[in-house]
Amino acid sequence: MGDLLKEKLDQLQCHFTWSPQKETIDLDDMMYRLQDAIIFANKYQAASYNQLAFVNYLQGNSEEAIQNLKEAEKILRENHKDAFERNSIITYGNYAWVHYHMGQLAKAQSYLDKLEMICKPLTDGPRYTAMLPEVYGEKGWSLLSSAAPYYEEAVECFEKALEEDPNNTEWIMGKATVLSRLESFSGTPESHEWSQSVKYLRRVLELDPDDSMAMVLLALKLKRLSRKEEANELVEQALQKSSNDPYVLRYSAKFYREEGAVEKAIDLLKQALELIPHSCFMHHQIGMCYRVKLKKLGVRHSRSPATQQETELINKCKYHFGKASEGRPRTAIRPKLDFADICIRSGEYSKAEEIYNNLVKLEDIRPGNVQQICLGAGSFELYQKRSESSAISLFLKGVNIEYDSGERKKCKEQLEKWADKKLCYAPHDSRALSVRGLLYKMRGHKSKAIEYLEKALEMDHENEEYLSALSELRLSD
User: Fold this and answer.
1) DSSP, residue by residue, 133-198
2) Nearest-angstrom CA–CA distance, 27 and 34
3) pLDDT for residue 477
């Protein structure tokens, strides 16, 4: 019975058959975020309970997962009296999987029977599921809240949901949110025409003028498009409507920090932290605010003692960046890099080196995160340790990852700057010649790239890296 049951379960649309797995999710962080969403995001409570059930299962808490699913079912019955069945497909699928993993095969089968009865009149497709807008929409939100590698798939889910229900603000907001994040990852300069998220955020506000989250997210996008007056009005309006919503507070704080109103940003973040005291995101944002204040003090001469104000700000930065990365070895890349940056500022080079060494060892993380690590660790090797070889290796690693980010661009700039300087006083340095060749290759200047790699090989005849790059270039036509 078990094998046949497993075949049926694999056909379901629910958290147990969607992409995110234990290895790609920071389970503790997601647990906190989902618990906060249940308290503050009323629209998405049932979906949050569904996802929380999956996280509890991954952590070995199957009984707790069943309780989460009971809460999701209760909310769906209250909120969707006339359309409960079509909204319960994911919840029932999760029930079936949890009971299966608990060894309760008869109960798992009973949920499959329920799903078959629900789905039969709704679809000509699989027996145990129906690809309805409600299913696509919840899958989109689940992927969006899981991890960045799933964002592209989340966009597709929201698009599928919107095909049948184009005015559903929940799914328009989902698509706007994920597009906004993808736009920020791409490293591409934004323009009003290019920014798809602006279009969808405006559409949300057309359909629901009181959506405070849409207001603050739109304000952040408009500020970057130099529409500052409208952006300011939107943030003020959102704070008036939702002064106790931690999500509105955190994005409003980000807006004010980027505008230079750091104290106002800190006040808003502290309000948000009172509402969700374990939030890693809030701690990171507060740390960034204190770092802005620290940078305003200017660069201190290495032999001069730190002022009391500087010491206080350094300690506040370290406290909040430390809190932001606590217990998150694989996912808190940015807070850890920021912590290392503060250690450099305070002269704690061995601590900074320890952080970079641990980050460089991480595997199977997002390409943009790898590039952030390469840039930070490479800069440390070059400017603090004076280790050109290690620095160049790290910058090259960042550049060679085919992901268009701001960090990749900065790695490339560091390589150009180093090669230019090196070739001024060591024109026959093979490493600098090969780097120059690689940079020409990236710009599409094939003949120049070949010329410099040949020069590099003249200086270092048997270097396999240069031979391989040269061979690849000569064969590429």
Assistant:
1) HHHHHHHHHHHHTT-GGGHHHHHHHHHHHHHH-TT-HHHHHHHHHHHHHHHHHH-PPP-TTT-HHH
2) 10
3) 60
CA-based nearest residue to 142, from 127, 157, 160, 122: 157
CA-CA distances (angstroms) from residue 201 to 80, 175, 274, 408?
Answer: 26, 9, 28, 29
Angstrom distance (rounded) from CA 44 to CA 46 = 6
What's the pLDDT tens digit per position in 103-155?
A: 999 999 999 999 999 988 887 766 888 889 999 999 999 999 887 778 999 99
Q: Give the residue ranges of DSSP H helices in 279-327.
A: 280-296, 308-325
Which pTM does this prediction carry?
0.82
pLDDT of residue 444: 85
Q: How many helices (H) and strands (E) does the chain have?
A: 25, 0
> Is CATH 2.60.40.60 the classification given to domain 2-166?
no
Half-sphere exposure of residue 446, counting CA atoms within 13 Å on the CB side?
A: 7
DSSP state of 16: T
The Cα–Cα gap between 263 and 71 comes to 40
Helix (H) or strand (E) holding 407: helix 406-425
pLDDT bracket for residue 18 (50, 70, 90): very high
**Per-residue pLDDT at 111:** 94
Q: Which two tokens stand for residue 15?
A: 């958290």
